[in-house]
């Protein structure tokens, strides 16, 4: 198939729910992607955070190849060596106390499990989530997600979800009632614009939840696996939740969702009360084992911290040059750049020039590159972004459409 045939068939046959870039990707290695014409890209999208280890990490590739010849599926009503191994590796890195896991297939599913678990354990219905939060798009997870463009067409959603302003302890305190099962939040909001909480906030929330007997759930689907310079985002502030949701990069690129909880909490779910057919399949678990091994053996968490610092400094140097940049923020290799206008054109132009970047809301560029990204690739991304911002500033000035303040 050529480029046009690929695009035409997807457009014709696939539900039209993804905002598409007109690029056909056929190959990847580390932080580099190639399209069907052989053009090379620096990947700062990282498949929305999935490709944190780098595309086609050799350990993951080898593990998948070996396991594919041995056993691909095995329902969790039977025991399996790879699943057992993965659970041991997983709980050897999760924060202390979070050592009972439910395995599923996506971030949204990991949140569904957390919601059901919180209701079952507490016997209470209400979940407090944050304005600006993103937790996925299945009905339960969607009920915790904030953006009304995702929610409104599908109402009524699951009852007893309320949203409070983020980064504000008093608002959570006011909202907690007799009915509250849990407070659910991302330690750093991803989709919501790469928002790092103020120091003290997560600790305060931990203390408040403990005091009120309310469960604290961290959605670490985007902030875990070394991304922020710590294995888990919450470790930047030394705070441990009662329940944590994981997904995107945990199986080296294969679909996985994980809900981990304290043992006495997870014990609230009895046989049959929650399950999924694919839970902990051997192929996914083999990839997950290799992914965790690579993360530890190659010191990728430290690399994310170092490379993230460099990348952020370079982005800040652009801020000094371009008035259209409002703020640079983030931790490790989870970075955001807020502009004073819509980023759509910037994203498209950077892609044309070989650099793939995400957005996070209308005005924010989001960078979620694989950890193996090289200094040269970061430099290239900066050079391209610099030129594209320059061009945009000129275009706006010439149109008599200066940048708003
Ligand atoms: C991506 C994401 C989800 C949803 O994960 P899916 O695999 O797309 O269902 C949930 N929470 C956070 C914080 C995410 O970034």
What brief labels describe this structure?
405 residues; alpha/beta; Aspartate Aminotransferase, domain 2; 2 domains; 4-stranded mixed beta sheet; 14 helices; binds pyridoxal-5'-phosphate
Describe, in plain words, how this protein is organized in 3D.
By secondary structure, the chain is an alpha/beta fold. The protein folds into 2 domains: 3-57 and 299-398, Alpha-Beta Complex (Aspartate Aminotransferase, domain 1), CATH 3.90.1150.10; 71-297, Type I PLP-dependent aspartate aminotransferase-like (Major domain) (Aspartate Aminotransferase, domain 2, 3-Layer(aba) Sandwich), CATH 3.40.640.10. It contains 14 helices and 15 strands. It has helices at residues 3-13, 46-49, 58-70, 81-93, 107-122, 139-144, 148-151, 169-175, 201-212, 263-266, 282-297, 300-321, 344-352, 375-398, and strands spanning 25-29, 32-35, 40-43, 98-104, 126-130, 161-164, 180-185, 215-219, 243-246, 257-262, 325-331, 334-339, 355-356, 358-359, 364-367. The strands form 3 sheets. Strands 4-10-9-8-7-5-6 form a 7-stranded mixed sheet, with helices on both faces. Strands 1-2-3-13 form a 4-stranded mixed sheet. Strands 11-12-15-14 form a 4-stranded antiparallel sheet, with helices on one face. The radius of gyration is 21 Å and the shape is globular. Residues 106-108, 111, 134-136, 186, 190, 219, 221-222, 247 line the site of pyridoxal-5'-phosphate.
């Amino acid at each position: 198939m050529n480029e046009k045939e690929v695009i035409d068939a997807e457009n014709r046959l696939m539900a039209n729910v993804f905002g598409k870039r007109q690029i056909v990707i056929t190959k990847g290695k580390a932080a580099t992607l190639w399209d069907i014409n052989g053009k090379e890209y620096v990947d700062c999208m990282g498949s929305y955070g999935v490709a944190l280890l780098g595309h086609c990490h050799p350990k993951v590739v080898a593990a998948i190849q070996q396991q594919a010849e041995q056993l691909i599926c095995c329902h969790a009503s039977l025991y399996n060596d790879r699943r057992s191994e993965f659970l041991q590796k997983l709980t050897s890195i999760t924060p202390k106390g979070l050592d009972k896991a439910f395995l599923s297939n996506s971030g949204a599913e990991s949140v569904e499990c957390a919601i059901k678990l919180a209701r079952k354990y507490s016997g209470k219905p209400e979940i407090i989530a944050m304005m600006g939060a993103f937790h996925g798009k299945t009905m339960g997870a969607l009920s915790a997600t904030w953006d009304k463009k995702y929610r409104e067409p599908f109402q009524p959603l699951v009852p007893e979800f309320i949203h409070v302003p983020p980064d504000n302890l008093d608002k959570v305190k006011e909202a907690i009632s007799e009915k509250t099962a849990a407070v659910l939040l991302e330690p750093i909001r991803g989709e919501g614009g790469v928002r790092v909480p103020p120091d003290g906030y997560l600790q305060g929330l931990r203390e408040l939840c403990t005091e009120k007997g309310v469960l604290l759930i961290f959605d670490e689907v985007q902030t875990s696996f070394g991304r922020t310079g710590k294995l888990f985002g919450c470790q930047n502030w030394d705070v441990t939740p009662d329940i944590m949701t994981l997904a995107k990069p945990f199986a080296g690129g294969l679909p996985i969702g994980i809900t981990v909880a304290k043992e006495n909490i997870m014990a609230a779910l009895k046989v049959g009360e929650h399950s999924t057919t694919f839970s902990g399949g051997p192929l996914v678990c083999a990839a997950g084992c290799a992914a965790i091994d690579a993360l530890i053996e190659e010191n990728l968490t430290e690399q994310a911290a170092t490379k993230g610092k460099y990348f952020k400094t370079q982005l800040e140097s652009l801020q000094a040059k371009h008035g259209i940049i409002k703020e640079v923020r983030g931790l490790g290799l989870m970075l955001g750049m807020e502009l004073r206008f819509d980023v759509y054109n910037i994203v498209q132009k950077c892609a044309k020039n070989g650099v793939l970047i995400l957005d996070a809301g209308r005005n924010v560029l989001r960078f979620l590159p694989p950890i193996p990204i090289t200094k040269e690739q970061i430099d290239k991304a900066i050079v391209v972004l610099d030129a594209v911002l320059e061009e945009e500033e000129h275009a706006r000035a010439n149109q008599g459409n200066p940048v708003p303040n």
